[in-house]
């Protein structure tokens, strides 16, 4: 089931962000380090390129992500013009404190003490923008919650002498191009639960975990690695349900509860440090998706000659 989620307030947020960008110097784009490209709103890149604004791309929640994957993403983004990529955990005040200095490096024309450095935090829901805002200001000015789209309104605050910071609501984009992106976003809780089916999202997540993080699954759920090798995503959800005693009346498995356990274990980092995509796996995913689309549009190209 393709996943799409674009609450009404996000269209207004996009318009206000576009207007505000005319008066800022650096865009701070916060992404989820576990899925940096899937959690990067293409509208943000369009807006900042239109205004020719540099971007400090923060791979947040890096303490939950696979370090090798994060390293590959940093190299990928730092090759892009006008972009500086840094991995942080916004919950770590010392790491968050580096952000203004990094922004100054991207806007040297604002480093003469006569004009304030104007920064804007942008990103999709639930990637940690409000946590970063609070850490930078050293006080709670933005509501933080484990639900997407907590921040609804844009606000600009003084960050210190010669610095201002604009916080924007989390913005999704109207159409998610690739089904895999929708599932990765849902697994990481960037999409509201009303738009997804937990069992489908958990099964998608399970496929990735079985392929790349089998030892972590074996350790968490006391499963034999050899047994896991024969599982697909739905089978993993069932196994988690059996291990955690997720039963309904009559003794059947409560697959929804089992799915929620697997998803929450991933979101909380208790499975270990996991990334859902790398530059290489993303390239493979896009190639496979485009090939499937081409085959759907031209069945003959896929070997279906109708005869």
Describe the structure.
The chain has 307 residues and is an alpha/beta fold. The protein has 13 helices and 6 strands. A 6-stranded mixed sheet has the order 3-2-1-4-6-5, sandwiched between helices. Helix 2 (42-51) links the parallel strand 1 and strand 2. The longest helix has 19 residues, at 279-297.
Parts with pLDDT < 50 across at least 5 consecutive residues:
145-150
- Mean pLDDT level: 88
The largest sheet has its strands arranged as 3-2-1-4-6-5
Question: Roughly what percent helix?
Answer: 40-55%
Instruction: Please state the oligomeric state of the protein chains shown.
Output: single chain
User: How far from one another are the termini?
Assistant: 31 Å
> Tell me about the biggest sheet?
6 strands, mixed
Task: Describe the global form.
Answer: globular
Number of strands: 6
Order of helices and strands: HEHEHEHHEHEEHHHHHHH
Q: How much is the radius of gyration in Å?
A: 21 Å
Number of helices: 13
Strand-pairing-aware structural class: alpha/beta
Q: Which range does the strand content fall in?
A: 5-15%
List keywords for this structure.
globular; 13 helices; about 10% strand; about 300 residues
Short description:
With 307 residues, the protein is of the alpha/beta class. Helices cover 44% and strands 12% of the residues.
List the helices and strands and how they pair.
Layout: H1 9-21, E1 26-32, H2 42-51, E2 55-60, H3 67-78, E3 83-87, H4 93-96, H5 99-106, E4 117-123, H6 129-137, E5 155-160, E6 163-167, H7 179-187, H8 198-212, H9 214-221, H10 225-228, H11 233-243, H12 255-268, H13 279-297
Parallel strand pairs: 1-2, 1-4, 2-3, 4-6
Antiparallel strand pairs: 5-6
């Amino acid at each position: 089931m393709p996943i799409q989620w674009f609450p009404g307030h996000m269209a207004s947020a996009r318009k206000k962000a576009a207007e505000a960008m005319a008066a800022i110097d650096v865009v701070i784009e916060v992404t989820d380090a576990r899925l940096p490209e899937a959690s990067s709103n293409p509208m943000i890149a369009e807006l900042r390129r239109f205004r020719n604004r540099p971007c400090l791309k923060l791979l947040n929640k890096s303490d939950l992500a696979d370090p090798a994957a994060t390293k590959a993403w940093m190299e990928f983004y730092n090759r892009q013009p006008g972009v500086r990529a840094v991995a942080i955990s916004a919950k770590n005040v010392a790491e968050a404190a580096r952000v203004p200095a990094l922004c100054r490096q991207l806007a040297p024309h604002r480093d003469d003490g006569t004009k304030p450095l104007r920064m804007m935090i942008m990103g999709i829901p639930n990637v940690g923008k409000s946590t970063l805002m609070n850490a930078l200001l050293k006080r709670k000015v933005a509501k933080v919650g484990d639900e997407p789209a907590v921040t609804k309104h844009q606000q600009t605050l003084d960050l210190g002498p010669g610095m201002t910071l604009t916080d924007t609501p989390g913005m999704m984009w109207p159409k998610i191009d690739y089904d895999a992106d929708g599932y990765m976003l849902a697994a990481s809780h960037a999409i509201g639960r009303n738009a997804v089916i937990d069992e489908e999202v958990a099964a998608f997540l399970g496929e990735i975990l079985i392929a790349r993080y089998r030892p972590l699954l074996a350790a968490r759920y006391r499963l034999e690695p050899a047994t896991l090798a024969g599982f697909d995503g739905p089978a993993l959800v069932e196994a988690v349900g059996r291990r955690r005693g997720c039963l309904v009346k009559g003794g059947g498995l409560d697959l929804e509860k089992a799915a929620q356990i697997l998803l929450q274990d991933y979101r909380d980092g208790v499975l270990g440090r996991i990334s859902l995509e790398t530059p290489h796996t993303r390239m493979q995913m896009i190639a496979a998706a485009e090939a499937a689309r081409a085959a759907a549009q031209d069945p003959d190209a896929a070997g279906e000659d109708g005869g």
